[in-house]
Amino acid sequence: MSFDLVLFGGTGDLAWRKLMPALFQAWRHCKLPAEGRILAVARDERSDDQYRAFIKEKFAEVEAPKRPTDEEFARFAQLIHYSRMDLAQPEHYASLKQWIDARGADCTVFFLATSPHLFTQICEQLGRAGLNAPNVRVVLEKPLGHDLASAQEINRVVRASFTESQALRIDHYLGKPAVQNLTALRFGNALFEPLWRRESIANIQITIAEELGVGTRGDFYDRTGALRDMVQNHALQLLTIIAMEPPANGDAAAIRDEKLKVLKSLRPFSADSVGRDVVRGQYRGGTVGGGAVPGYLEELKVPADSMTETFVALRTEVQNWRWAGVPFYLRTGKRLGARDAQIVVNFRPVPHPIFAGTTRANKLVIKLQPEDGLELHLLAAKGGGNNEQLSPVKLNLDFDEAFAADRVGAYEKLLLDALAGRLNLFVRSDEQEEAWRWVEPVLEAWRNDTAGPRPYSAGSWGPPASSALIARDGFAWDEES
Ligand code: BG6
Mind listing the pLDDT tens digit for each residue in 260-294? Predict the structure, then answer.
């Protein structure tokens, strides 16, 4: 299958930090279809060779095993071309069309790795230039809008030029092998399904913790905050996969329909419930990984009086027969105690204890990163005689070890899916809008709340109010229990 992949924003961070390394890995693994051309597009004048030299230099910042040798790069670089474009000029899209039509590849993918405020302009111009034939797909990077209205506007413009199945919205968490394993755990194995419901499960905790601060992205982050940056997309996508009903088949439509139902079943927030069930925080200086780090307000390009949240913890429920009354706790933040993304499914305790001492309920820990695996926590008897207290033991599955050679990074997976037209791991517009609809009352309540985010020390697990939120139900975050 021949393809043309056009990267708008070809000199930007995303292009050289994530996309080119992912394309190189796909090429190295012989997964990139053979007859391919990659055209990077940006504002400044460069030749193909100058752009290739720029990308080669940037590979120095990629982790060592993923860097090409000189010989590999020389071969990979044959696929790469460069073109200067002024995104406002229709003639530049006409020239692009000529370049594409001259070869007539089987498919063309436009990857919009630009600032999101250019998405509507690019999609409109692509449509007007006739660059929207059925064999064309357009990939949109997050953030897709700032709120429901702006997301709807982007979707309206995209829809005017492309059908829903031509528009691929990326949430890179869906490309992570660990997240695909979550789907496999639930729908490729019968073991847990009878237990996957309110009768057996006490609560579910989804944590995406980062050690990093906002780095050099202070201006972007300050306009965004953790709710828009991580909860509206990554955390909610994880929740949908955990809570969805088994789809009728593995098709994108069947899977996305079930995910949408979960989003529609989430308990809506009101001004009152935001005060009670959502905690926002902002990091102060502290210690992370043994080194002192500054607070959010001291970060580059962050206003000294910023009220932007760098931490969110919240409690919600999925209001349907399977999940009624089971709390789902979501938590994410920057400058937390560890880089750690995991989902903890806490089962109910035994109904009638017969062993001495306190008993712990079973739990399943789905580890997403840095490790990718599963831990099933059980109780066992050591065989120590009468009145023995049971001891905690765990079954531990390490997918990184089990599947090391076959692992494919998130962007590699998603780029290959985009080229092949596999839509399962992309977010449909109605899912994305529903997620915005759900977070809007939180944004609204915060706009009217002058108290601002609660401070927490860098290197901690967020403000104490986050522990209080979950303790109110008689539970504790996993690291506190
Ligand atoms: C991005 C956010 O979507 O995800 C970043 O914009 C965040 O702020 C990143 O750091 C986390 O991704 P990962 O794959 O490192 O967990």
Answer: 999 999 999 999 999 999 999 999 999 998 899 99
Rounded to an integer, what distance in angstroms lies between the CA atom of residue 248 and that of residue 87? 42
Q: What is the mean predicted confidence (pLDDT) over 198-212?
A: 98
Q: How distant is the alpha carbon of residue 480 from its chain centre?
A: 25
Distance (Å) from CA 132 to ligand 1 centroid: 30
410: exposed, middle or buried (Cβ count in 10 Å: 0-12, 13-18, 19+) = buried
| Cα distance between residue 218 and residue 224, in whole Å | 10
Burial of 192 from C-beta contacts in 10 A (0-12 / 13-18 / 19+): middle
Residue pair 136/110 in contact by the 8 Å Cβ criterion: yes
Cis check for the bond before 143: say yes or no (omega within 30 of 0): yes
Q: Does residue 385 carry a pLDDT above 80?
A: no
| Active site amino acids | 234
Q: Cα–Cα distance between 110 and 461 in angstroms, integer? A: 40
CB 182 within 8 A of CB 366: yes
Rounded to whole angstroms, how far apart are CA atoms 27 and 36?
Answer: 10
Bridge partners, residue 169, by sequence: 140, 427
Atom of ligand 1 nearest to the CA of 212: 10
Question: Best mutation site among 146, 171, 234, 372 for ligand 1, i.e. most ligand atoms within 8 A of its Cβ?
Answer: 234
Beta-bridged to residue 356, according to DSSP, are: 389
Q: Closest by alpha carbon to 233, among 116, 88, 400, 355?
A: 116
> Residues lining ligand 1, judged by CB closer than 6 Å?
142, 210, 229
Query: Does residue 187 contact residue 245 with C-beta atoms inside 8 Å?
Result: no
Q: Write out the E strands in 231-349.
A: 278-284, 286-288, 291-293, 311-317, 327-333, 340-347
What are 328's strand-pairing partners? 204, 316
* Tokens describing residue 49: 């060779």
* Residues with Cβ within 8 Å of residue 171, at least 6 apart in sequence: 142, 233, 234, 237, 426, 427
Atom of ligand 1 nearest to the CA of 217: 8
